[in-house]
């Protein structure tokens, strides 16, 4: 086999190297975009933190601090230095994981965020699982039954999702599923008080921690708490993913290989779920990554309604207390994850779809 | 009337104005036949009328002004003939507040429409027209802004500028222009190398004239569609900021803020949060339907 290629060995190597560079290109683009966007994010948070109407020192230590502390903080923040140097200091401390100290909680912001972020991550992750589990099959159904009633039903469902304020839906859902039907736990955090203090914190994601502890009762309690907020949060991604799946599937179902498969006598079920969906997964993965990013962000409003101790709640509570370090720290973390997922989805698309240039 | 119709639909229009009007009339006929789009149009027009005539429609004022015993008697009244949507904790009529609040929603929509799309439009067409390093710089900038999380960034901006309607509107406008820049650039690229543009260039048209006179009008229809579809999202974001207490401050009857006030009482006085939410939902739905309809008429190739 290989001997046939030896004469063309030289050509193949050159060709192989060219292919290699082609493949690396999206990765280089990903890295440079990530660096630039991150720089932009930090520049923006810096500007917000420094050029806002209130004194940046007071924003950090509060207006009741004594004069000596004010002077000390003023120098510590490098406010006597040129603005470019200040930005340099700022970049340096952020890259060392130092986001300053929160006035409200008196903890380092990084420590606070490590406490709050897992709750958001858990909520958004469960929501995206729901989103894929329901959104994809619904979208396939809509494509197969194009312009018939299942398709129209999915369309209406998506339209309602795109038009409802999530925090409002959440409140209505609490009335229905908690107050009237009593199917879920009270919308007050992640666990009932009886488990709250006994559960050992390992990952700080309660569903996982309760499983690790082998506490079945606590796990059920945690699930009763998370199921409603996660379902609501997933509504938007179910709506979005079902629409996208529908259009990707319609693209595939028009292709000639589908006709070929039909002519060969492949069963309709295999054509839809194996052949067409198998190819539709490529663009779908990128859409799912995008959707996950917007869920992390969208959880802010859901967390407020369900008193969920996540990052969104941390940011808003800090905001209302005018705790600037905490707000900007939270913004940087959410922004970073969001940007990372956004660009990853872009990268995945370029890697998986050979047609994308 | 029939004469006017014939003039509109003339095969060989005598003037540019006649041709434009004729085309608009055909577009309207197509739009008119789409019932969902018409529902959307009716909702949006109703919102505008409601906002314009709010003081005449609202049966009560923004605040009741009641105190003491009167307040205790009149507060938290369930929906009735006197108070269609009930009253809140300050004995304010919820229906009147929603009617007056429509002005704020319309104000947000109007300001965002006249800032973000125009900024994005200019950046996009300039970027696509000139290409080269101009395009490189402007599009990298756009990509950076596009990758930012909108709501969280709006939160941070609102925090820095102080809580209030102005900061909320500013934050929304700053975070929503990049999508329009991308769109306008893509459209410009398809027009850039056409013969008629080359002809205009040969006649000595300046860059400015080519962009404003020849490129922008052609990108406009897809931009209008996109803006209409985005309006629902913008209304929801504004309501979200209001809900978090960062938009309009009480007693201004911003719908999102009204839902926030109703949150504490949701299990006992359901009407406080339900009706403002319904108002937001209706308006967002209206813009979504209108946008879908406009897309079918103005931009048939991108129909989903």
TrEMBL record, chain A:
Membrane topology: Multi-pass membrane protein
Primary localization class, coarse: membrane
UniProt entry tagged with the keyword Cell membrane: yes
GO MF annotation terms: dipeptide transmembrane transporter activity
Entry's Gene Ontology cellular component terms: plasma membrane
Pfam family, one: BPD_transp_1
UniProt keyword list: Cell membrane, Membrane, Transmembrane, Transmembrane helix, Transport
Subcellular location: Cell membrane
Cell inner membrane recorded as keyword: no
Transmembrane segments: 27-48, 123-144, 156-178, 222-241, 281-306, 326-349
Family annotation (InterPro entries): BPD_transp_1_N (IPR045621), MetI-like (IPR000515), MetI-like_sf (IPR035906)
CDD domains found in the cross-reference section: TM_PBP2
Domain annotation ABC transmembrane type-1: ranges: 117-349
Family listed: Belongs to the binding-protein-dependent transport system permease family.
Record-given protein name: Peptide/nickel transport system permease protein
UniProtKB/TrEMBL annotation, chain B:
Key words of the record: Cell membrane, Membrane, Transmembrane, Transmembrane helix, Transport
Superkingdom in the source lineage: Bacteria
One GO process term, biological-process aspect: transmembrane transport
Cellular component terms (Gene Ontology): plasma membrane
Compartments where located: Cell membrane
Pfam family, one: OppC_N
Membrane topology: Multi-pass membrane protein
Predominant subcellular localization, coarse grouping: membrane
Domain (ABC transmembrane type-1): residue spans on this chain: 102-291
TM regions (residue ranges): 36-58, 106-131, 151-175, 223-248, 268-291
Protein family (similarity comment): Belongs to the binding-protein-dependent transport system permease family.
Protein's UniProt name: Peptide/nickel transport system permease protein
Organism: Marinomonas pollencensis
């Amino acid at each position: 086999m290989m001997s046939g290629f030896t004469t063309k060995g030289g050509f193949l190597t050159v060709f192989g190297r060219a292919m290699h560079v082609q493949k690396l290109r999206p990765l280089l683009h990903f890295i440079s975009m990530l660096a630039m966007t991150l720089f932009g994010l930090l520049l923006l948070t810096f500007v917000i933190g420094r050029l806002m109407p209130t004194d940046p020192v007071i924003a950090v230590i509060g207006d009741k601090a004594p004069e000596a502390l004010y002077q000390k903080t003023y120098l510590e923040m490098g406010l006597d230095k040129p603005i470019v140097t200040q930005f340099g200091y700022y970049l340096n401390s952020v890259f060392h994981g130092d986001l300053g100290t929160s006035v409200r909680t008196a903890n380092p912001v990084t420590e606070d965020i490590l406490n709050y972020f897992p709750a958001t991550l858990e909520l958004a992750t469960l929501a995206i699982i729901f989103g894929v589990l329901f959104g994809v099959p619904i979208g396939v159904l809509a494509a197969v039954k194009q312009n018939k009633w299942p398709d129209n039903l999915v369309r209406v469902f998506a339209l309602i999702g795109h038009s409802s304020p999530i925090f409002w839906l959440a409140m209505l859902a609490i009335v229905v599923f908690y107050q009237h039907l009593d199917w879920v736990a009270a919308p007050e955090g992640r666990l009932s008080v009886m488990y709250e203090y006994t559960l050992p914190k390992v990952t700080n994601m309660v569903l996982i921690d309760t499983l690790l502890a082998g506490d079945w009762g606590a796990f059920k309690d945690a699930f009763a708490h998370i199921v409603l907020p996660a379902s609501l949060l997933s509504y938007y991604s179910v709506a979005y993913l079902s629409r996208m799946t529908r259009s990707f599937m319609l693209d595939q179902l028009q292709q000639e290989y589908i006709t070929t498969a039909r002519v060969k006598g492949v069963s309709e079920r295999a054509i839809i779920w194996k052949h067409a969906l198998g190819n539709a997964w490529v663009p779908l993965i990128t859409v799912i990554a995008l959707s996950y990013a917007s869920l992390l962000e969208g959880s802010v409003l859901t967390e407020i309604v369900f008193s969920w101790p996540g990052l969104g709640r941390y940011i808003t509570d800090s905001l209302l207390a005018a705790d600037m370090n905490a707000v900007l720290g939270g913004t940087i973390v959410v922004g970073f994850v969001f940007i990372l997922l956004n660009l990853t989805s872009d990268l995945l698309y370029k890697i998986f779809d050979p047609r994308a240039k | 009337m029939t004469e006017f119709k014939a003039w509109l639909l003339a095969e060989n229009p005598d003037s540019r104005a006649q041709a434009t009007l004729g085309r608009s009339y055909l577009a309207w006929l197509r739009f008119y036949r789409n019932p969902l789009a018409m529902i959307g149009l009716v909702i949006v027009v109703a919102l505008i009328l409601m906002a314009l005539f709010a003081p005449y429609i609202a049966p009560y004022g923004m605040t009741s002004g009641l105190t003491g015993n009167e307040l205790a008697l009149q507060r938290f009244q369930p929906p009735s003939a006197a108070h269609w949507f009930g009253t809140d904790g300050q004995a304010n009529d919820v229906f009147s507040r929603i009617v007056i609040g429509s002005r704020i929603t319309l104000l947000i929509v109007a300001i965002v429409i006249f800032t973000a799309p125009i900024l994005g439009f200019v950046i996009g067409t300039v970027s696509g027209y000139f290409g080269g390093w101009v395009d490189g710089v402007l599009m990298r900038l756009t990509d950076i802004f596009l990758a930012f999380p909108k709501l969280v960034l709006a939160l941070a901006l609102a925090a820095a500028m102080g809580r209030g309607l102005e900061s909320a509107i500013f934050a929304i406008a700053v975070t929503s222009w990049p999508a329009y820049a991308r769109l306008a650039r893509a459209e410009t690229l398809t027009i850039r190398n056409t013969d008629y543009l080359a002809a205009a260039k040969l006649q000595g048209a300046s860059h400015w004239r080519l962009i404003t006179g020849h490129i922008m009008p052609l990108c406009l229809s897809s931009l209008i569609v996109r803006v209409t579809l985005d309006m629902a999202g913008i209304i929801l974001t504004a309501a979200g900021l209001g809900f978090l207490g960062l938009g309009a401050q009480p007693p201004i009857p911003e719908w999102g803020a009204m839902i926030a006030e109703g949150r504490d009482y949701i299990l006992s006085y359901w009407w406080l949060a339900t009706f403002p939410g319904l108002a937001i939902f209706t308006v967002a739905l209206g813009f979504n339907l209108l946008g879908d309809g406009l897309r079918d008429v103005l931009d048939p190739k991108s129909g989903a």
